[in-house]
Every structure is written in structure tokens, then in C-alpha cells.
Amino acid sequence: GELLMEEHLSPRKLKALAGVDDLHQVKALEMKVDTRKTSLGNFGVHLPNLRELKLNNSLLMSVRNLGTSLSHLRVLWMACCGLSDLDGISSCSSLKELYIAYNNISELSQLTWLDHLEVLDLEGNNIEDIDQMQYLRLCCKLSHLTVEGNLVCLKPNTESAEEPGYNYRVEIKKLIPHLKYLDKIPISQT
Predict the structure, then answer these.
(1) Does residue 6 form part of some domain?
(2) 104, 11, 95, 103: which is closest to 56 by C-alpha?
(3) Residue 81: predicted pLDDT
(4) Residue 3 domain-assigned?
């Protein structure tokens, strides 16, 4: 807490936060930040071997606040962070797993840049249009997707009335044919 009160995450603060003298040793980091008060700077340059970053329950105004030096990151948790868009996520180009549940995300086009993405958790966001799922088709390695708790599970878009025959699982399977699991259930099960 006290360490993060200064302007940005300096190497000195990162060493204290991670409890190490050599930042090259840090492969995983968990912290809670408020980017309204503290800039993260480009902290990724100091953590060249960081593979997992957990920022759950932080306050992030934008993914851009993470800087552009996290291209080696494999797993990123940003649940309950107040995110309304994913602008800047493309700088995390090696991501295999992205957990962004319980934010205010409604638009998924930025995810098309994540060629290695295998697991995506979008639970409890503001995805209201089934057409947003077409962007995930371009994530050709995506095998596990969670969308429960989004309006798109009830109806195809905001203009539609709830349709008795509408099944979001069937629709998503059509849009992302390579998907294996939807909401932790094999995609073949309706």
C-alpha cells in the first residue's frame, strides 16, 4: 500500500513488492492498484520474465495503464477493475489466458490481436450483441470461453425481445467453431 503511493512503480518499489533483489527472478506478481492515484509507468520493462500478473479488484482506467512492455505475459487477471474497454490489450501479445470478469466491457474487437489466446473469462460484463462474438473467431487457439452473466445469454441484441427459441450456446458455437468449452461446459452440450 505505502509503496504504491509515489508516482509510479520504480524498480526499487517493485523489488520491495516482489520481495526479491533481482527483478529478473519475478515470474508472477499480484498487486492491487488505483491508476487514478498512481501511474504504473512502463513497469514491465523492469520485469522481463514476468509471465503472470494478477490485478483483480484494482481500479484501472484503461488497459493502456499497463504500459507496452508486457509482451511476454502469458496470464493476466483483471477481474472487478472497472474496465469499460480493452484498448491497449494488443501490447500483451503473448497472452494465453485473460480473466476480465465483472467489468463493464461491451466491445471485443481489440481481442482479435491476441493470436495465442486459449482461455477468456468475460463473465458478468456488458456484452449485449451476439455479433461481438465474431471477433473471437479470429483468436484461432481460443478453446475456453466464459460469457455467463452477460445480456447476450438472454437475447441476441438490445433491440431483440427475448426469443423463446434463442440459445446463445448454439449461436456462439456457429460463430466460434473451434471453441471446446463454453461456460465450463463442453460446447457440444446445449
Answers:
(1) no
(2) 103
(3) 96
(4) no
Cell of 146: 466464459
**What count of residues does the chain have?**
190
Q: CA–CA separation, 127 vs 160, rounded Å?
A: 14
Residues 6+ apart with CB under 8 A from 159: none
Residue whose C-alpha cell is 480493452: 86
Whether the pTM exceeds 0.85: the reply is yes
Query: Helix, strand, or coil here: 150?
Result: coil
pLDDT of res. 2: 45
Contacts of 61 (CB under 8 A, 6+ apart): 35, 36, 82
Q: How far apart are CA 89 and CA 122, in angstroms?
A: 14
**Segments in the chain below pLDDT 50:** 1-6
CATH number of the domain that residue 24 is part of: 3.80.10.10
In 3D, which of 120, 119, 62, 118 has the Cα closest to residue 91? 62
149: left (phi over 0), alpha (psi -120 to 50) or beta: left
* Residue 4: per-residue pLDDT: 44
**Distance of alpha carbon 66 from alpha carbon 45, whole angstroms:** 11
